[in-house]
TrEMBL record:
CC cofactor: Zn(2+)
Protein name: Peptidase M48 domain-containing protein
One Pfam family named in its UniProt record: Peptidase_M48
Organism: endosymbiont of Galathealinum brachiosum
Membrane keyword on record: yes
Length: 651
């Protein structure tokens, strides 16, 4: 999967959505004008021809009023959902899952999601449960991966096996990586406006008939009925738009899920289970129509499924994922008494599952050997591409954390101390403890000391995954608590008189996820590298200085990248060359501003930035864990989550 191309396509889809929206609005405006014209004829207010109506000023007033209603509906929904994924989850009545829960099925979901985040580099989404929904379904929502939520129905949690759950979670993570969440939430706002005319119609039909019992009231009822019919044009338009946008992206997410897990049997079995459960994937939620395009499977019972459904049929999806799956299920049922036959079939099942998906996704011929990421190009291209090796790596890392440590990860107070420990192990222990004694209470210090030795023993490659697991818990703090905690972390980092690049980027990552503006959508403002010359100069200088190479090698690696990178080599304002900056010129404020500007590059341009940064880091033929972590954190801030570099890929 090409992460950057998919992100670019998602941006284009938003523009296509706007075009669909304008076409639907045009049809509705014309229909409303026709209805109002005949309404006036009925009341004998306007005894003119339709041609006279459409050339009169009344058309302008009716059209403006209609557009105002539609725009108001869209803006109201947009404002309601501007906080992102959490707003969508609360809107549908979902309840946040306690990360410290003892429920076995919910713990299974938490573990699968955390492992998927470690494998993909995507921040762990907040988990919500639709407790009263027996239908099997799930969706993700949000503007950015940093504030994404995953909502799962009780039916899904109760019915899915771990393997099936892993397939569904991988499908939803694909939507996060492909930029589908932004499309979905924009579509949600647009369709709310289209349905406003229907709401006005229902309002008129249900108006107080005790006040008016005459011909005018009857006419009002008729007008309300006709506007409601026009509202159904809006519903039809909405379903057509959702069907046009969603179906192909569902196929893509299914294929990506297979690529991530290397197991088509998991997601195919999940889809088959939905077929065989009475409730299916249907939801009894007032927002199931509005959110139908966001779910894992069809949330509505639809008759015209061939052209109005937001999802392909379950059987078609199963056949696309694994053509032989249904036949094998039938064969098992026919031969259920023949244990020996079934045993032989099961022995060869994995090979059949792997080979059957080749028509959808191409995999390395030898899935046992995962190529090491040794070039800058391969490093950048790893965005959004999770291999079986990454999944296995994530499982091993997740299971290597002790039970006590994971208990602490899911509690706010202990999670705060674990982050401080991750900072502490990179500085002088004695001076670090002296600072913390002045700023922490006795209980907090005890928790800090309790886990300090375990954090120190952690291999380098496990520390960033641990931080990623801590972020969802830290998000549970109030806004004021988050602000105070970020201030404490910054003071702690600066307390030893050193402020390393990694420490700053570490703090930037915390701010990226915890600061007030963390959930805001990133707007693309820069479509050329020349618009961000100074920011690129600063980033490439950071990467050059992060290496412990000799000064000559730093200049060599920097100049090599700048020479071939499509950016200006001369500042037109000052006439100065964009040379390697002196380390003293690089301040935290400048780094923060540079990363913020680079995050506003178009997705395809970000690919080049990450590749060039990796090229500088690898100029000596080696990539140390500290450099790999720095690159991954920078990529995360730019909105391009990267999977972890596997141990064999790093020196």
């Amino acid at each position: 999967m090409d992460f950057f191309s998919q992100q670019e396509k998602a941006k284009r889809y938003t523009k296509i959505l706007l075009l669909y929206f304008l076409i639907a609005v045009t049809f509705i405006v014309v229909a409303v004008n026709v209805v109002i014209y005949y309404f006036f004829i009925f009341l004998e207010f306007y005894p003119y021809t339709p041609q006279d109506w459409f050339s009169s000023s009344m058309v302008f007033y009716v059209s403006i009023t209609t557009c105002f209603l539609i725009l108001s509906g869209s803006l109201f929904r947009w404002f309601k959902l501007k906080s992102g994924g959490q707003a969508v989850a609360l809107m549908v009545g979902a309840k946040k899952i306690d990360l410290h829960t003892s429920d076995i099925k919910q713990r299974q979901l938490i573990n699968v999601v955390e492992e998927m985040s470690i494998a993909s580099g995507v921040p762990v989404p907040e988990l919500y449960l639709l407790e009263r929904e027996s239908g099997i379904n799930a969706f993700v929502a949000g503007y950015l991966p940093t504030e994404a939520v995953m909502v799962v129905t009780a039916g899904a949690v109760e019915n899915f096996t771990r393997e099936e759950l892993q397939g569904v979670v991988a499908h939803e993570y694909s939507h996060i990586l492909n930029g589908d969440m932004q499309i979905n939430i924009h579509l949600l706002s647009m369709l709310a406006g289209i349905l406003m005319i229907s709401s006005v119609g229902h309002l008129l039909m249900n108006s107080d008939n005790h006040l008016v019992r005459n011909r005018n009231f009857s006419a009002l009822m008729v007008l309300g009925f006709l506007l409601s019919l026009i509202g159904y044009i809006g519903v039809l338009s909405g379903r057509l738009i959702k069907a046009a946008v969603s179906r192909q992206r569902e196929y893509l997410a299914d294929a990506a899920a297979v690529q991530f897990t290397r197991n088509p049997g998991g997601i195919a079995s999940a889809l088959n289970k939905i077929r065989n459960v009475k409730a299916g994937s249907r939801l009894n939620n007032i927002y199931s129509e509005d959110l139908s395009h966001m779910f894992f499977a069809q949330s509505l019972k639809m008759k015209l499924t061939s052209w109005l459904a937001t999802h392909p049929s379950l059987i078609l999806r199963i056949k696309r994922i694994d053509p032989g799956f249904v036949a094998r299920i039938k064969a098992r049922k026919l031969n259920v008494k023949n244990k020996e036959t079934n045993s032989q079939k099961n022995m060869g099942e994995l090979n059949e599952l792997v080979s059957s998906i080749d028509s959808i996704v191409s995999f390395p011929e030898n899935m046992e050997s995962v190529p090491a990421i040794v070039t800058a190009h391969e490093f950048a291209e790893s965005a959004g591409n999770i291999s079986q090796a990454h999944m296995e790596f994530a499982t091993v890392v997740h299971q290597s954390f002790s039970f006590e440590l994971m208990q602490a990860v899911h509690k706010v107070e202990s999670a705060k101390m674990l982050v401080l420990n991750l900072i502490l192990v990179r500085m002088n222990i004695d001076s670090g403890f002296e600072f913390l004694k002045k700023h922490l209470n006795k209980n907090e210090l005890n928790v800090l000391k309790k886990f300090n030795s375990e954090i120190k023993r952690l291999e380098n490659y496990k520390r960033l995954p641990l931080l990623e697991l801590l972020l969802p818990t830290l998000k549970l703090m109030t806004d004021s608590e988050k602000t105070d905690y970020l201030i404490l972390c910054e003071k702690f980092i600066k307390s030893d008189g050193r402020y390393t690049l990694f420490e700053f980027v570490f703090l930037s990552l915390l701010k990226q996820h915890l600061a007030f503006e963390s959930g805001k959508e990133i707007t693309v403002k820069h479509h050329s590298y020349k618009q961000v010359n100074k920011e690129l100069q600063l980033l490439f200088s950071i990467m050059s200085h992060s290496s412990r190479s000799l000064s000559e090698l730093r200049h060599e690696s920097y100049n090599k990248v700048v020479k071939y990178f499509p950016m200006s080599t001369l500042d037109k304002t000052s006439g100065e060359l964009f040379n390697l900056l002196d380390f003293k010129e690089i301040t935290p404020k400048k780094i923060s501003a540079a990363l913020k500007a680079l995050a506003q590059l178009s997705p395809l341009l970000k690919r080049g930035v990450i590749e060039a940064s990796a090229d500088i880091a690898m100029h000596d033929g080696q990539l140390k864990y500290t450099e790999a972590e720095l690159l991954r954190v920078i990529a995360d801030i730019l909105g391009c989550p990267l999977p972890p570099l596997l141990p064999q890929a790093v020196n």
